[in-house]
């Protein structure tokens, strides 16, 4: 019997147990020198003849590779890393889309050439017996993620080190990865595999029974799936994707063509999100150049970004239950992560840090995490909150901007020392007339002391309001989620002490542009700090 059995499962599902570790096909030793090509042949298939190679180590599981066309020394080879799913591919299960994706990619490489790596990592690496135990828990109402964890198993146990060894053996120079799964993209890149871009792979004719699984993959595992596919009644007859902006991370050309007639392009090159990212990167670069040459102030470029419902509620816990209000869909969340990745810092107020305990990292797209900054006049942020944790990184990953007078208090000074010992930078500024940390002072100190050149302001209500009142934003990117919440969480506080009138406080945006992203609408415009001259130089 497995020793690390989940206590939860024992209590709530006494008959369902995780299988012994040996059963899990993921229980593979680290990829060593014994992992080699064992055999190969030409294989005629329904979709064309492929070169079939089997890789493995003595006594280990087989990694099956199908190659179509010439790939040695080639760039942009179309690659799918497909993990075994016996239930779907052999038994015809309708619970997931694995078999359809596999067949779609086989058809794709018959036309375009490419490499299919079929891995023995059944059940996302937990093995067949455990996957079936997880299915059994799903019959009792758990979703695919909770079922794994209830068994005491990780939600994701796949290891792609062998993919690198296979591609090296095949001499593939770089790949276009066909997946909807950002985890795969991140993992392959972190292994040093040259992934030039990702394209999504969305088969037509999805069975209604797999919609719940897809929905969980999108909501809990960050899969890039357009919302049109996530409604049971639409799944089967869902049209191929029509609009590119429905899938941000991955290009959707495969799904639009259905039968894979077109070549996947680098993600989002043509779409609105890519344009926004490009514009913003350009503006940040111009702003930085101007600040470096013409002023000693060094105030960062500021992008104010947040999501709100149609009636103006922003994200965060609601009421006593602490249930989170989710506003935007996965494509918009992905856009937010891509925006984070092009900024040096991300700023929130201490209220948000305490209420939401956000990570503020880049997880749904590739890219570097920004410096996480909290405006915290009383130094209340816990050192073990997610955004303060430095992890294994050596560079400064988090900073707190507090008030000079707070540091005169000995208890607060000790908290500051504790934060510093955890590699969190503590900076202090003078208070504004309300006794709070002024956003513009925080920006200046971040620019001057930490060389922050661009900052994204994400919330909460007070910081958003300060951004407007202090006219600090160079650009605003607002996501509108098509929901009504009865005004439970108003986005803006009117800081009436400082603004004689609402009209005086309101700052207009210029060059406003909007586009649909999944079910959401994104509105972007230049803010009051935008400097046209800097952009023209
Ligand atoms: N543990 C578990 N594994 C599942 C379940 N349904 C499918 N799988 C496995 O999930 C793996 C495929 O992973 P997915 O998450 O469906 O898709 P992906 O490969 O990560 O992403 P794509 O590249 O977009 O297909 C296969 O190994 C399946 O056996 C489930 O409910 N529980």
UniProtKB/TrEMBL annotation:
GO molecular function terms attached to this record: 3,4-dihydroxy-2-butanone-4-phosphate synthase activity; 5-amino-6-(5-phosphoribosylamino)uracil reductase activity; GTP binding; GTP cyclohydrolase II activity
A GO biological-process term: riboflavin biosynthetic process
Reaction catalysed by this enzyme: GTP + 4 H2O = 2,5-diamino-6-hydroxy-4-(5-phosphoribosylamino)-pyrimidine + formate + 2 phosphate + 3 H(+)
EC numbers, comma separated: 3.5.4.25
Pfam families, per the entry: GTP_cyclohydro2, RibD_C
PANTHER family: GTP CYCLOHYDROLASE II DOMAIN-CONTAINING PROTEIN, GTP CYCLOHYDROLASE II-RELATED
Alphabetical keyword list: GTP-binding, Hydrolase, Nucleotide-binding, Riboflavin biosynthesis
Superkingdom classification of source: Eukaryota
InterPro entries attached to this UniProt entry: DHFR-like_dom_sf (IPR024072), GTP_cyclohydro_II (IPR032677), RibA (IPR000926), RibA-like_sf (IPR036144), RibDG_C (IPR002734)
GO CC terms of this entry: cytosol
Annotated GTP cyclohydrolase II domain residues: 39-197
Protein name per UniProt: GTP cyclohydrolase II
Lineage of origin: Eukaryota, Haptista, Haptophyta, Prymnesiophyceae, Prymnesiales
């Amino acid at each position: 019997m497995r020793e690390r059995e989940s206590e939860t499962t024992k209590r709530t599902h006494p008959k369902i147990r995780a299988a012994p570790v040996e059963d899990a096909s993921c229980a593979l030793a680290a990829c060593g020198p014994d992992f080699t090509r064992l055999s190969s042949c030409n294989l005629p298939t329904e979709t064309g003849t492929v070169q079939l190679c089997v890789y493995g180590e003595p006594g280990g599981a087989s990694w099956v590779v199908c190659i179509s066309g010439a790939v040695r020394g080639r760039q942009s080879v179309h690659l799918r890393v497909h993990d075994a799913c016996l239930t779907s591919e052999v038994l015809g299960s309708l619970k997931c889309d694995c078999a359809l994706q596999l067949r779609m990619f086989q058809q794709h490489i018959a036309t375009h050439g490419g490499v299919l790596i079929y891995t023995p990592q059944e059940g996302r690496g937990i093995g067949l017996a455990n996957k079936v135990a997880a299915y059994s828990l799903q019959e009792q109402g758990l979703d695919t993620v909770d079922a794994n964890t209830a068994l005491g198993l990780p939600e994701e146990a796949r290891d792609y080190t062998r993919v690198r060894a296979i591609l090296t053996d095949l001499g593939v120079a770089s790949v276009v990865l066909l997946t909807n799964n950002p985890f795969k993209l991140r993992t392959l890149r972190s292994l040093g595999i040259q992934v030039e871009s990702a394209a999504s792979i969305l088969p037509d004719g999805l069975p209604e029974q797999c919609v719940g699984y897809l929905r969980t993959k999108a909501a809990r595992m960050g899969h890039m799936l357009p919302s049109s596919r996530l409604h049971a009644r639409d799944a089967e007859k869902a049209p191929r994707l029509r609009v590119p902006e429905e899938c941000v991370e991955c290009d959707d050309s495969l799904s639009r063509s259905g039968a894979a007639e077109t070549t996947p392009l680098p993600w989002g090159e043509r779409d609105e999100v890519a344009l926004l990212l490009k514009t913003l990167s350009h503006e940040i670069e111009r702003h930085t150049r101007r600040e470096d040459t013409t002023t000693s102030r060094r105030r960062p470029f500021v992008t104010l970004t947040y999501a709100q419902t149609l009636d103006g509620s922003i994200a965060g816990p609601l009421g006593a239950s602490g249930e989170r209000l989710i506003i935007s869909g996965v494509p918009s969340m992905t856009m937010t992560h891509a925006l984070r990745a092009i900024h040096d810092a991300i700023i929130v107020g201490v209220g948000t840090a305490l209420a939401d305990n956000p990570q503020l990292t880049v997880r749904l797209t590739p890219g570097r995490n920004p410096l996480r900054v909290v405006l915290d006049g009383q130094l209340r942020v816990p050192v073990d909150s997610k955004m303060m944790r430095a992890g294994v990184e050596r560079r400064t990953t988090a900073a707190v901007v507090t008030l000079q007078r707070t540091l005169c208090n000995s208890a607060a000074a000790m908290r500051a020392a504790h934060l510093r010992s955890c590699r969190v930078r503590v900076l202090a500024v003078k208070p504004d007339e309300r006794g709070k940390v002024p956003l513009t002072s925080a920006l200046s100190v971040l620019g001057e002391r930490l060389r922050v050149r661009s900052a994204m302001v994400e919330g909460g209500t007070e910081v958003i309001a300060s951004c407007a009142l202090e006219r600090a934003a160079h650009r605003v990117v607002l996501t509108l989620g098509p929901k009504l919440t009865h005004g439970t969480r108003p986005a803006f506080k009117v800081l009436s002490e400082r603004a004689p009138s609402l009209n005086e406080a309101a700052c207009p945006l210029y060059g406003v542009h909007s586009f649909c992203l999944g079910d959401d609408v994104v509105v972007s415009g230049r803010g009051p700090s935008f400097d046209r001259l800097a952009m023209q130089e």
